[in-house]
Design brief:
Layout lengths: L1 E12 L5 E2 L2 E2 L5 E2 L7 H13 L5 H4 L12 H14 L2 E11 L9 H11 L7 E6 L5 H4 L3 E12 L6
The structure holds the ligand Nc1ccn([C@@H]2O[C@H](COP(=O)(O)O)[C@@H](O)[C@H]2O)c(=O)n1 and 2C-methyl-D-erythritol 2,4-cyclodiphosphate.
2C-methyl-D-erythritol 2,4-cyclodiphosphate binds next to helix 2.
Amino acid sequence: MRVGFGYDVHQLVEDRKLIIGGIEIPFEKGLLGHSDADVLIHAIMDSILGALALGDIGKHFPDTDMKYKDISSIYLLSQVFKLINEEGYDIGNIDATIVAQRPKLAPYIEDMRARIADTLHTPIDNINIKATTTEWLGFVGREEGISSYSVCLLQKKIIDMR
Ligand SMILES: Nc1ccn([C@@H]2O[C@H](COP(=O)(O)O)[C@@H](O)[C@H]2O)c(=O)n1
Ligand SMILES: C[C@@]1(CO)OP(=O)(O)OP(=O)(O)OC[C@H]1O
């Protein structure tokens, strides 16, 4: 078994879509980034890459490469899934937290879990997503940005020798 940790932050700005966990969320601001800036998926990818000892998302998908401009982070997660496979692992479980003062994310959490589980070819009960505010403290509380944390457990694939 291998454990990994991921963390990411993106700035909230006007005239951008808000995409978190692969779900578009109606809100007056969105997250700024080279990609679609899906802060939750970025933290999850970093936790997986951490468990595989394969560096981080900046190493695999550099923000200097125009190939990744406005790219869907769910697509990038599907590429990270290929690495999990190649290295001979399966998802054990993922537990992640989105830190956002607003909007209220609870109505979207089940759709996020389903999208992530589908992309990682794992049952939905291996994926847990939580949301919390910072009680109006700090950059999150001032609605300047949203952050996410993720931990991931990977298990060696079970090979049936019969
Ligand atoms: N953006 C958010 C933040 C929180 N929630 C939900 O509200 C609960 C209470 O949050 P606190 O920060 O006051 O502890 C939290 O457990 C989430 O269920 C949310 O939906 N969206
Ligand atoms: C995902 C990538 C690549 O498009 O871009 P961003 O959306 O800027 O995200 P960030 O978490 O800053 O860094 C990783 C980048 O490689």
